[in-house]
Amino acid sequence: MRKRISLLAAGALVVLGAAITPAHAADPVFTLAGPAGIGLRPHPGKSGEPQKTSVEFRIVNDSTKTFDRPSTFTIDLGALKGVADVALAKGREKDCTLTAATVTCKRWGLWTGESTVVKLDLSAADGSKVGATADLTLTGTAEGATFQAATTKVRVGGPDLVLDRARLKAEQKPGDRQNLSIIFASEGTDPVDGVVLEIRTTHGIALVEQYDNCSYSEDSTAGRPWNTGWSTVQCLLEGEYEPGALYGVDGSLTLEAAPHAFMDGLTYAVYAAGEQPKAAAKTVAKNRAFAAGNKLAAAKQAPKAAARSARQAPDLDPWNNIQEFDFTTRNTADLVATGVSLTGKAGDTVDVDLGFRNNGPAWVADLRHGDAVARTDIVIPAGARVTKVPAGCKGVAADGSDREQALGAPRYFCSTGHVVGEKETFAYPFQLKIEKAVADAKGSITVGREKPRGTTGQPWDPNHGNDTAALVINAKGAGPNPTPTTSGTTTASPTPTGSATATASATPSTSTTGTGVTANGGGLASTGSSAQAIALGGAVLLAVGGGLFVAFRRKAGGHA
Predict the structure, then answer these.
(1) What is the pLDDT of residue 299?
(2) Dist. CA 338–CA 357, nearest whole Å
(3) Are 345 and 489 in contact (CB under 8 A)?
(4) 318 by DSSP, 3-state: which?
(5) What is the pLDDT of residue 247?
(6) HSE toward the beta carbon, residue 304, CA cutoff 13 A
(7) Which of 14, 334, 442, 551 is the most buried (most CB within 10 A)?
(8) Which of the residues in the chain have pLDDT under 70?
C-alpha cells in the first residue's frame, strides 16, 4: 500500500511539473527572398565570352531580436545543368561553399532586418538554347526556426531595352526650356509587349506637356527624404517592340527650369510594361487637364530582323534602361538670420525660436551626399542659461570646440536637413533661463555653411550682410520688464535685420508662419505652402561627383 501511494504521489508530481513548466514561444519564421526571375544572355555573348548576370538571395528577420543559433542555407544546382553555369560572387567565398551540385552557406546568427545570404554570378551554359529555364531555390534550416524558401526562375534569353543618352544642356537659367529626346533599342532575344517610359524630375525642373496615357505623381512617402518630392511621369507606350529594332518617342517632351531652380536632376528610363517601379502614393494627375486623344507613342526608326517569343521575361540588363542628368541653373539663395530681442528679470524662463529663413529665389539641396545645407551658429547672451535644446542642435564651447553637456552651453550649432526650400523658415525652439539680469546682454545668430568651429557665408548667397542678426536680452530702451506668467515664462520680440520681413515666434505654436524644426540633425523643417515637397531622391542611390541630386545606379548605354 505504501508503494502504491508513493507511485501515485510521483505521478502527481510529474503532472504538476508539466503544468507549471512555461511553454516555449513559437519558433520564429524567417523569409528568404530573391528576384522572381532573371534572364541570361545566350552563350557565348556579344564579346565571345559568357556574360554574367548576378542574383542575390536575402533573409528577412522581422522580429526585434537577433537569432543566435547557427543556420544552414542550401541551393540545389541540379536543375541548372545544361542551362547555366554558377560561380560565387566576389567577396562571398568565405561565407559559402560551391560544389557542382549545391551551394551551402553557414550563418552563426541572424541580425534583425534584411541581410544577404548569398550572391551568385550566372552565365548561360555552352550549348544552352534560348528559352531554356530552370528554378533556383534557396532553403534554410536551423534548430528552433522555420525558413520560407525563395525561388528564382532562370531563363536563357529575354528582352533587353537599351536607352540612349539624350543631348541636354547642363547649364541653364530660370525659365529655359529644352527638348528631351527619347530613343531606345530592343536588343534582346524576345519582343517587348508594351513599354513604360518613366521621367523623374527634382523640384526645380518640370515637364511642360501633358498626355492622357501618362500618370503624374509626387512621392510624399513619410520618412524617406531622398525620395520625397520627386515628380514622376509614367507613360504607357502600347505596341510590340521587336528585337533588333530602334525606336524613338513621337511627341514633344519639354523640360523647363522653374524660377527657383538651382541644382537639379533628371532620371529617365524605359521598362517592359509591368516591370516599371510602382508609382508614388500621392497622385496629382486629377489636377491636370488633358487634351482628348493626346497620346504619347513610339515609332520604329530602324526595322531589323526580329526573333519571336510568346513569353515576356525579365530584362537581360536592367541597368542600361536608365539614364540621368544634372542641371546647374544660374541662380542664388539669400539666407537671412532672424534677430530676436527678449526682456525679463532674473529667474524668468523664456521660450524663443532662433533661426533663419531663405529669401530665395532658389531652393538648395545636397541630394548627392545628404549633407546639411546650412548651419545656424547661436551665441547665448550673458546672464542666460539654455535649459532646453531643440533637436538638430548641439552645445559647443565659446570657441566652437566640442562640449559634452548640451545644457548651459555658451554657444550652439544647429543644422538643417539636406534641403532648404526657396521660401522656407527654420526656427529652433530654445528655452532660456535668465539667471542674472544684465542690461543690453548681446548674443548673435549667424547662418551659413559649416566650417571648423564655426560658420562662414555660402558661396551662392548674394548678401552676406544679413547672415548675422542680434540676440539681445534687456536691450537699452526696451522699457520696463513684463510681468511673468504663472509658469515663470516671458516673451520674446523679433528684431528685423537687413531685408528681413519674416518674424520669429516667441513660443512654438500653430500661429507661427511657415516655421518648423529639423529633427535628428537631418529632417526637413515643416514649411508653408510655398515650400512644397522638396526633399528629393531616386530609388537606388549613387554618389557621383558634380551635381547635387540622387541618381539611379546604372551603366550607361549608348548607340551609334
Answers:
(1) 85
(2) 7
(3) no
(4) helix
(5) 95
(6) 14
(7) 551
(8) 1-25, 92-93, 219-229, 279-293, 302-313, 315-316, 477-560
Q: How many CA atoms lie within 13 A of 252 on its CB side?
A: 10
Would strands 349-361 and 419-420 be described as parallel, antiparallel, or unpaired? unpaired
Q: Which three cell numbers stand for residue 147?
A: 525558413
Q: Give tens-digit pLDDT for 209-240.
A: 999 999 998 865 544 444 556 789 999 999 99
Q: How far is CA 53 from CA 85, 133, 152, 188, 500, in A?
A: 11, 15, 13, 14, 58
Q: Is 539 helix (H, G, I), strand (E, B) or coil?
A: coil
Cα–Cα dist 216/288, whole Å: 8
Give 90-134 pLDDT, tens digit per residue. Answer: 876 678 999 999 999 999 999 999 999 999 999 999 999 999 999
How far is 188 from 543, CA to CA, in rounded Å? 30
Specify the pLDDT at position 92.
64
Set of cell numbers at residue 440 = 543690453
Cell of 356: 533663419
pLDDT at 47: 72
- Could you report how far apart the first and last alpha carbons of the chain are, in Å? 103
Q: Which helix (H) or strand (E) holds 7?
A: helix 2-20
Residue whose cell numbers read 523640384: 203
In whole angstroms, give the CA distance from residue 481 to residue 343: 6
Q: What is the pLDDT of residue 288?
A: 42
- State how far the Cα of 137 lies from the Cα of 135, in Å rounded to an integer: 6
153: three-class secondary structure by DSSP: strand
Q: What is the CA radius of gyration of the chain?
A: 31
Please list the helix, strand and coil fractions of the chain in percent, rounded to the nearest 5, in that order.
Answer: 5, 40, 55
Tell which residue, 249, 237, 253, 251, has the closest CA to residue 299: 249
**C-beta atoms surrounding 44 within 10 Å:** 13
| Whether 110 contacts 58, CB under 8 Å | no
Coil/strand/helix, residue 535: coil
* CA–CA distance, 127 with 133 (Å, rounded to integer): 13
Contact 328, 172 (CB under 8 A): yes
pTM as predicted: 0.69
Q: How many CB atoms lie within 10 A of CB 510?
A: 5
- Taking residue 428's Cβ as centre, other Cβ atoms within 10 Å add up to 28
Residues shown for the chain: 560
Instruction: Count other C-beta atoms under 10 Å from residue 541's C-beta.
Output: 16
**Local structure of residue 67 (DSSP, 8 states):** B
Amino acid 228: pLDDT: 53
Write the DSSP assignment of 207-262 as a string of letters: E----TTEEEEE---TT-TTTTT-EEEEEEEEEEE-TTEEEEEES--EEEE-TT-S
CA distance 304 to 306: 6
Cell of 108: 552563426
| DSSP, res 402 | B
